[in-house]
Design brief:
With about 850 residues, the protein is α+β, with helices and mostly antiparallel strands. Helix content is about 50%, strand content about 20%. The protein has a seven-stranded mixed beta sheet, with helices on both faces. A six-stranded antiparallel beta sheet has the order 10-9-11-17-12-15, with no helix packed on it.
């Protein structure tokens, strides 16, 4: 199965998102979730049954457009290039550029992402970036080769600010016509004096023409709503714009017809004529105001990615071949370049220190407040802040390959995903707009034909029903909270890969920890070296370290460190074989070695251990140390005890989890006595010891079969299957790439307190989602019957369409504002 995010053109409400989602889900082997806020569809499909052209055609068949997103970038002259695009205003622009670039010779595919205004081009062979830039220019837009950096982000921010400024200007113009129109028509209700020359009671025709003159500019300025609304209506997939378009058009036509009667049949107009021009103008102005406020709030929900992008400095000090230092743009830095860093500098890209040492503040990436000491040979991460020392480092990763860029990609992926809790809202949104249209018609029939009310009264009812309905609030309820929640997590060094993971985290009942590198520091040290013949200690350590030099296991590294401290030279090995979960077999010179745990000795049927070894093993094991035996030519010669200290916050993190009602388990391949010692110190609820790496996933599965929701926390390659099997896999970010890839949540900090913070964040986000959904449902459940006149039947007031428009706009904005409250929630 392939999973990708695709921007969708034409979405205006939850009903649109539901229509696209339903259409895509009708395709074989296809599952889609559409995010209204980010206007993206997350699609899982089997390429054996469906291709991207089919997906696009299916979306087009229901009146919308699907465009492919940017997925990665690359360096020049590779098979993939990333471009920044300027001048796009809608998804149609993106589609035009994409189709045009695909015609360039050598281009296999092109994906334009309207959201971040970038384009990825896939090449058949050699990149011809100038040809693409020229083609985009010919289409009426601008393109340039791009790498994610502060300058690019600043340009995008400036463009968004410009668009908001234009929207604000349009809103002010609409209000400048709407306000006098409102005063002219509604002034008498507030005891305001209307000039005799334009008083409706005295000069109805003159007043009608003035109202029409004030209304038409508002209609023109709000024409985009009509274009979107009627286009969707004609294609059979009405949306929120369709409801507003129908309501305002009905009000406008009623005013025009009445004005025409005043001109040609004045005798048919009795008393005070109902024009409804003000309803059209006020509704459109309030809709525009609501959309403007919504876009302002949306901008605040997406600041996480912008903040991460801003962490990259615009320039760096490059050391040239002649030794001179030149300040260059970060976008020009290449792998293997040497960069000079001074106190207070922010690192531009990832690399390895070649000269000097310093302490680095990595809190913006890991959430860890204490500086980390780095010396020659250590790797450093872009966006870190150098504190006191100076150093030179060699660049190892640039562009989208840096750790920061990968973090940004994870955050963007999560913000485009959909949580399972949104399913109910999706089901309602699917039928929402058609139902509202039917209810509006039903209300009109009831009041006009059954209750005998005049046409003006009936029209007011129908317009109010169309205007007050708000599928937008339903569509924004979940994604806004997810965007803010995942953004807040990123700021704390908690990278949540999907909305589903965010939801499932707060449902967990058990947190299952790996031991080495998770509960412990992952830096084991040899504490005891007991030999059958003490005179052979140096020779045995030499054999032991020579064999372990071919192993990457943390225990092997501890043994090698002990040999280095003893200044022992290593011997050449002839054979090496790892025995997963037990140890290794090796041949050094003429000596056949077995190095591992008690299970390895039993498996090889070695002679029983002496009583002295048994007593020593029992003592060391009770002290919580890991035991490694060395057998030479089938004879156990040494016992090595290795200790891996617990992390400083392990105990407090476990206590915090238990305080919140969660159970804390540990799974390890260590001996039961060693594991029990750790469990006692940490007050764990259960320990599962002597588990082979390949069996950790089965442990998780066994717990799940008992009805438990399991969070697995690990950091090693052997944890990857268990992380994937768990309901939620949390990988310590300092661990292996395989573990990080298999996990649902990546904890950039090695501190276990981040586990508790991730769970608290999940709880806070789900609470916000439920609040949003509740108010969105309640708003529509109460608002629509109110607009239909249900309360009026019981002697209550009748809803004015203008009040309905104000309520409708406020409902969407209130959902966004509630989601923004997440930014201030404490998760410690």
């Amino acid at each position: 199965m392939i999973q990708k995010d695709y921007p969708v053109k034409g979405l205006s409400c939850a009903s649109c998102a539901s229509t696209v989602e339903q259409a895509l889900n009708q395709l074989p082997k296809t599952q889609a979730h559409v995010n209204l806020l980010t206007e993206q569809a997350h699609i899982s499909y089997d390429p054996a049954y469906v291709d991207e052209a089919t997906l696009a055609q299916q979306v087009k068949s229901v009146g919308y457009e699907l465009i492919l997103p940017q997925t990665s970038s690359s360096a020049p002259n590779s098979k993939s290039s990333l471009f920044s695009i300027q001048g796009m205003s809608c998804a149609s622009c993106a589609q035009t550029i994409e189709d045009g670039v695909k015609q360039v010779a050598g281009v296999l595919d092109a994906h334009v992402n309207l959201a971040n205004e970038q384009m990825q081009v896939i090449w058949e062979d050699q990149a011809q970036t100038q040809a693409v830039i020229q083609q985009v220019t010919d289409l009426g837009y601008q393109a340039k080769v791009s790498q994610p950096n502060q300058t690019t982000q600043q340009e995008q921010d400036d463009e968004k600010e410009h668009e908001l400024a234009l929207a604000k200007r349009k809103l002010i113009l609409m209000a400048s016509f709407t306000l006098p129109l409102f005063i002219l028509t509604m002034g008498p209700m507030f005891h305001m004096t209307i000039p005799h020359a334009i008083n409706l009671h005295v000069h109805p025709l003159r007043n009608a023409f003035i109202q029409l003159a004030l209304t038409l500019p508002v209609i023109y300025l709000g024409r985009s709503i009509f274009k979107r609304g009627f286009r969707a209506l004609i294609k059979g997939h009405p949306n929120m714009d369709s409801l507003v378009s129908l309501g305002t058009t009905a009000a406008l036509l009623q005013g025009i017809v009445t004005t025409a009667l005043l001109v040609y049949r004045p005798e048919q107009v009795q008393g005070h004529p109902d024009l409804y021009f003000e309803s059209s103008a006020v509704i459109l102005t309030l809709m525009t105001l609501g959309k403007y406020l919504e876009n302002l709030a949306k901008g605040k929900t997406t600041t996480a990615i912008q903040s991460l992008m801003d962490l990259t400095p615009p320039t760096a000090r490059l050391i040239k071949e002649d030794g001179s230092v030149e300040e260059v743009a970060v976008s020009s830095i290449q792998v293997d370049d040497l960069i000079q860093i001074r106190p207070g500098d922010r690192l531009p890209v990832d690399g390895k220190i070649t000269q000097g040492q310093s302490s680095l503040d990595e809190s913006m990436l890991t959430g860890e407040s204490l500086p980390v000491f780095k010396k020659e040979g250590d790797f450093v991460t872009g966006a870190s802040i150098n504190k006191t020392g100076s150093f030179i480092y060699q660049v190892t990763q640039v562009g989208q390959d840096t750790r920061l860029a990968q973090i940004i990609q994870l955050v963007a992926q999560a913000q485009n995903s959909k949580a399972p809790i949104a399913r109910l809202a999706d089901q309602i949104a699917r039928y929402f707009v058609p139902t509202v249209l039917a209810l509006s018609l039903l209300a009109g029939v009831f009041w006009y034909f059954i209750m005998g009310e005049p046409l003006s009264f009936t029209l007011q009812i129908m317009i109010a029903v169309l205007i007050i309905a708000c599928p937008c609030a339903l569509g924004l309820a979940t994604p806004t909270a997810i965007m803010v929640g995942t953004g807040k997590g990123a700021e704390q060094g908690i990278l949540i890969k999907s909305g589903a993971a965010l939801e499932e985290t707060q449902q967990a009942s058990v947190v299952l920890f790996d031991k080495t590198g998770t509960l412990t520091q992952g830096k084991p040290q040899v504490t005891d070296f007991i030999c059958r013949d003490p005179k052979q200690k140096k020779k045995l350590l030499q054999l032991l370290a020579s064999a372990e030099a071919s192993s990457e296991h943390p225990l092997a590294q501890a043994i090698q460190q002990a040999a280095e401290e003893a200044k022992i030279d290593l011997l050449e090995i002839k054979e090496f074989k790892a025995v997963p979960g037990h140890g290794i077999k090796a041949q050094v010179g003429q000596q056949n070695l077995l190095i591992g745990n008690q299970q390895l000795l039993d498996q090889e049927e070695l002679p029983p251990l002496s009583q002295d070894f048994l007593d020593q093993a029992e003592r060391l094991s009770q002290a919580g140390k890991t035991l490694v035996y060395l057998a030479v030519n089938q004879q156990v010669e040494a016992l090595i005890a290795i200790s891996d200290p617990l992390k400083e916050d392990s105990q407090s993190a476990i206590q915090a989890l238990k305080k919140d009602g969660l159970q804390a388990y540990m799974v390890t391949g260590d001996q039961a006595s060693t594991a029990q010692h750790i469990a006692k110190n940490l007050n764990l609820d259960r320990v599962i010891a002597q588990v082979l790496p390949q069996d950790k996933a089965q442990v998780v599965k066994d717990l799940q079969e008992k009805g438990l929701k399991v969070i697995m926390v690990g950091d090693g390659i052997n944890d990857a299957p268990a992380l994937a099997q768990a309901d939620v896999g949390m990988a310590i970010g300092t661990g292996t790439d395989v573990a990080v890839e298999s996990a649902d949540i990546v904890l950039m900090s090695p501190q276990l307190q981040a586990v508790h913070q991730a769970i608290r964040l999940s709880q806070a986000t789900l609470t916000t989602i439920k609040q949003n959904l509740f108010w969105a449902f309640i708003y529509n459940v109460i608002g629509i019957p109110f607009a239909m006149g249900v309360f009026h039947l019981m002697g209550g007031p009748l809803l004015n369409p203008m009040i309905a428009a104000l309520a409708m706009s406020f409902s969407s904005v209130s959902v966004l504002l509630n989601a923004l409250r997440l930014k201030k929630v404490s998760i410690d």
